[in-house]
Amino acid sequence: MTSKTTDPFETKLSAMSIIGSWTFPIWKEKYPNLKFNKNYTLSSPVVPDNMKNAKNIKTYAYSKGIVIYSNSTARQKKAAIKFMNFVFSNPKNDVQLLRTTSLLPARDDAASNSEFRNYFAANPFMKVYAQNRS
User: Fold this and answer.
1) pTM
2) Arithmetic mean of pLDDT over the chain
3) Is there a domain that residue 96 lies in?
4) Residues in contact with 40: Cβ distance below 8 Å, sequence separation at least 6, in sequence order
């Protein structure tokens, strides 16, 4: 037996949902009336009771891995390193990645880095993820 599944928000069967930063472009299209801190909010996921007094709990991580195959030629390895240096040398590249994918870059300072200020001003819900990045 098969049936069409829908988003619990869509059917009003859920008061909460565990989501990721990639959810917001979908919500923007699907639920244009949702407004952060007006009719929905975000919070960090719950943690075990034995962590309730812990400091600096981080609950969100989405890092990307880079692999250079050992059997790559010296030229290919050099090109890969050059590309990585380009991508990771300028936070503006990370902001562009974030704008394009809604995925936070693998950096600890996104919430405080001035390059991200305009993005987070326009997308304050994403700052919650940046502040909870591990």
Assistant:
1) 0.64
2) 82
3) yes
4) 34
> 131 in a domain, yes or no?
yes
* 8 Å CB contact between 122 and 97: no
> How far does CA 133 lie from the centroid of its chain?
8
Number of domains observed in the structure of the chain = 1
Is 55 part of any domain?
no
Residues sharing a CB contact under 8 Å with residue 87, sequence separation 6 or more, in sequence order: 93
3-state secondary structure at position 60: strand
The answer to whether 115 touches 92, Cβ cutoff 8 Å, is yes
| 37: in domain | yes
List beta partners, residue 94.
none
Closest of 99, 105, 101 to residue 84, by C-alpha: 105
CA atoms within 13 A on the CB side of 39: 7
pLDDT digits (tens, 9 = 90+) for 5-50: 677 766 777 777 777 788 888 888 888 988 889 988 887 777 778 8
**Structural domain boundaries, residue 36:** 19-43+73-134
